[in-house]
């Protein structure tokens, strides 16, 4: 077999810059998970409030992704990348200085606005620097943070919480970010600007508050008493109305923020549905599990972080194998089995108790990771099957948005279910239990563990629903699909 050509020094240097930025952005989506219990205790707030530390970050990531393409054309990729890194570092520093839950959530949103553009702009820079003939090698470099993030994030977070203040979860980004900024300024080359592209301001004004209102309404279910509360109903209806208006606007405008015409392609549509559902169960579960280990089992943040590692290890094993199998036999022959494995691993957590065996829980999470690794990347690849070269950037933006929005909705829904279940089983003492200001007796521990198990039924349900789109994916490899399309 012929060796792959060596990458030039400029490509390697650019790759280091892009990976540094991507590592920070991706780690921050997972590193905070083990700190939520500590934050809830320090700020004296319940689960439905503290979940916004994660949800706000994910929503900000999703909202800013579609703006990145326009910004690259307008001011150049290097300028956008430096600006994104600067915003991320500033948001990190301010998050570490937060004095309340509200201020931390606001600074996390700022951090997400910077972090959301780091990955897509970095991918664009790498593609331009390496050229199409080296994209396979380049994608391997860019995939490193996505592979290591779910493994290292919770563990690093646990180590920091165990040995220092939670504030260092955010402060640690500052020196790394400064190094990344210095390297980016010296390494990246300015790109040409194209002022012909316009930003869809109307679409942005409709979609951003629409998504935020929907997530807010779902998050408020746990504290307001249910879906019948006027605040919940008003938020959901207003959010859905804005999103519906965005759909109508997107189908009429020439350069929409998200090109919904892509969904006319059946394969793209079903792959997008799968990405959304897998994003919900991925981020939702990463929100629930550390809280279970810390609230019910009384474990430290470090132990909770280590208990999250099996999922990342499982995904690391099957991510490449699943992608290769999908290339040969088609994602429709691989992804359904991955979804079944993912659901099987999740089912074990619906049976949680206050004394569940740690080895069983770790094995189940490893199985869940095996399913996640053989599901996510082939589904992303399937979304490109029938698209033209010109549609690929728009598709990349759309699928990344769907994953982040699915994750934010998953966290909001699972948090609302958990909050409601704890309140139902424990009553007036639920807030004190969640903030750690009231010790739990044996019966209370059992009741709270049952509440977590009920919440995981929703994660299991999202996994089962993902089987529908998975069964509709193409059962032929990409090469066969392209060859058939060329002969038509």
Structural account:
The protein is mainly α. It folds into three domains: 7-189, Growth Hormone, Chain: A; 201-256; 261-488, Up-down Bundle (Growth Hormone, Chain: A), CATH 1.20.1250. 78% of the residues lie in helices and 0% in strands. It is built from 20 helices and no strands. Helix 1 (9-30) crosses helix 7 (135-163), helix 4 packs antiparallel against helix 10 and helix 5 (77-96) packs antiparallel against helix 9. The longest helix has 35 residues, at 392-426. It starts with 8 loop residues before the first helix and ends with a helix. The model has no long low-confidence stretch (mean pLDDT 81).
Give me the CATH architecture of the largest domain, please. Up-down Bundle
CATH superfamily of the largest domain: MFS general substrate transporter like domains
Largest sheet: none
The proportion of strand residues reads under 5%
Query: Which stretches of 5+ consecutive residues score pLDDT under 50?
Result: none
Q: Determine the mean pLDDT.
A: 81
Amino- and carboxy-terminal Cα gap: 33 Å
Determine Rg (CA atoms, Å): 22 Å
CATH topology of the largest domain: Growth Hormone, Chain: A
Number of helices in the DSSP assignment: 20
